[in-house]
Design brief:
This protein is α+β, with helices and mostly antiparallel strands. Among the domains are: about 120 residues, no CATH class; about 60 residues, no CATH class; about 70 residues. The chain contains 17 helices and 13 strands. An eleven-stranded antiparallel beta sheet has the order 2-3-4-5-6-1-7-12-11-10-9, sandwiched between helices. It has a two-stranded antiparallel sheet with strand order 8-13. A hairpin with a 3-residue loop joins strand 2 and strand 3. Helix 5 packs antiparallel against helix 6. The protein starts with a strand and ends in a 5-residue tail after the last helix. About 25% of the residues are buried.
């Protein structure tokens, strides 16, 4: 019987803003925190812990994470990233925020449906780190929604039953045979076939003198040719991976890992043996898990860049409280419009009905299809920037042609004089541009276009990479 064992917000990263100076608590500890980082002894590291009122005990890390100066870590609760307190007010106007909080999966698992403990934690952060709570914002940088399902064993055949808007399906297999190794093997085998498909001499003289083979194999010319076609084919095809790399599927990525929206389907019972999240078994057993059956997790990872495209309302699209309120709508879109697992044998059959497995997944959060999604333009590329520059040049040429006579007279030149007027024209235009355009306007325009070096997608991907190195996540 297919059953739902768990549904949760599995990852949550938030950015906090306030039009306020740093608190006295933060300013009083600032000197000691900087001295610790400056004088840190790598040969004899001694940890420093801070008791944060109403938050818990956090370890101060000896390095920051740009653009944040300090990192406070409690693996059971969260990592708190603090920007330079001397620049708190200036950070209010840009999208990095003064605080960045990355909550742990275990802490999120303890939450109720209303995420009430998260709300209390945020209130304590505003009280502790800011002098006043005024003009505050909490914006979502990243959020993962997940459902744990038992009673169904996801396999290679299921990869052909997915209907998704993602352009890429990428399996992940541990202890696999690397495609590069197979390619090297073909480089050895293929020269042994002549242009007529006949096997050439495969005697030891083909090997360097003194080298003994690590293995021996007898293949016909046709077998070598078929193997070559298989390995040289598109390795993004899950069937090819199935044929030459592994017998069982471990993780399937839907969309590109680390992008603004992607999904993972993976065996959670195998993953917790590595990540150490055995606490999940307690929740599963409360829902009837027998302790033996494999549990598969369906997980969607979204960055703030996706949320900005998903909702029509600009700034409020990233508001944490709006995100929390609309989790049901987001889940419905992800499991009904963006990705589905069907009963069909072909993934291109978008009209096929949901499988029993996917009906269980899509019902993990209450159904709500009242979302409205209007995609925003994609971030500008270098080619688009070059195109805009070409258009600007064309506008200047037209402007120049229209006012050339008046321009000459304004600068004291006779029309018949041959002069280099373009530098004067550009100087006049640039002065007018500076008058009508402020740095703040350029900054806001860059943020809307997604041009800033800091982005929710890139930063949250970097944090996830760090957690994987520490063995805290997958």
């Amino acid at each position: 019987m297919i059953s739902l064992l768990n549904q949760l917000v599995d990852s949550l990263c938030l950015r906090l803003f306030s039009a306020s100076s740093p608190s006295e608590y933060l300013k009083s500890n600032l000197s000691a925190m900087r001295d610790f980082k400056k004088n840190f002894d790598y040969s004899n590291p001694e940890p420093v812990y801070l008791d944060l009122p109403n938050l818990g005990k956090f370890r101060l890390l000896h390095v920051g994470h740009a653009p944040y100066e300090f990192v406070l870590d409690n693996p059971e609760i969260a990592q708190i990233y603090l920007c330079n307190p001397d620049k708190f007010l200036s950070k209010f106007a840009i999208n990095t925020g003064q605080l960045y909080i990355d909550f742990s999966s275990k802490y999120l698992q303890c939450q109720g449906d209303d995420l009430g403990l998260i709300d209390l934690f945020l209130e304590s952060c505003f009280e502790l780190f800011y002098e006043k709570k005024q003009a505050t914002f909490v914006r979502t940088s990243r959020g993962d929604l997940a459902a744990d399902i038992s009673g169904y064993d996801f396999s290679w055949d299921d990869t052909q039953k997915l209907s998704t808007r993602a352009r890429k399906l990428q399996p992940f297999i541990e202890d696999d045979v690397q495609a590069s190794e197979l390619s090297d093997l073909l480089d050895i085998l293929e020269p042994q076939i002549d242009d007529k498909g006949v096997a050439n001499d495969t005697s030891p003289k083909l090997r360097p003198e003194g080298e003994t083979p690590k293995f021996s194999v007898q293949l016909t010319a046709r077998q070598i040719s078929l193997l070559s076609q298989l390995v040289r084919s598109d390795l993004d095809n899950p069937c090819v991976f199935k044929a030459i790399l592994a017998k069982s599927l471990q993780t399937l990525y839907i969309g590109r890992f680390g992008s603004k929206l992607y999904a993972r389907i993976y065996c959670k019972t195998n993953e917790i043996k590595i990540s150490g999240k055995e606490f999940l078994e307690i929740y599963w057993k409360e829902k009837g898990w027998d302790g033996e059956a494999p549990v598969w997790r369906v997980e969607f990872s979204m960055s703030g860049d996706f949320l900005k495209e998903f909702w029509t309302d600009g700034e409020n699209s990233l508001d944490y409280y709006e995100f929390k309120k609309n989790i049901k709508k987001i889940w419905t879109y992800l499991t009904e419009s963006w990705c589905r697992h069907t009963d069909a044998e072909c993934s291109t059959n978008a009209r096929s009905q949901n499988s029993e497995f996917w009906n269980c997944v899509s019902s993990a959060f209450d159904y709500d299809n009242t979302f409205v999604r209007i995609p925003l333009p994609a971030p500008p590329s270098e080619s688009k920037a070059a195109q805009l520059l070409a258009q600007a040049k064309g506008c200047l040429k037209t402007y120049s042609a229209l006012i050339i006579g008046g321009f000459h007279k304004a600068f004291g030149f006779e029309e018949e004089e041959q002069i280099e007027y373009l530098p004067h024209l550009l100087d006049a235009v640039s002065k007018e541009f500076v008058k009508d355009c402020s740095y703040q306007e350029i900054t806001e325009r860059r943020e809307k276009l997604g041009c800033d070096e800091f982005s929710d997608t890139q930063f949250s991907a970097a944090l996830r990479a760090n957690r994987i190195k520490l063995g805290r996540g997958s």
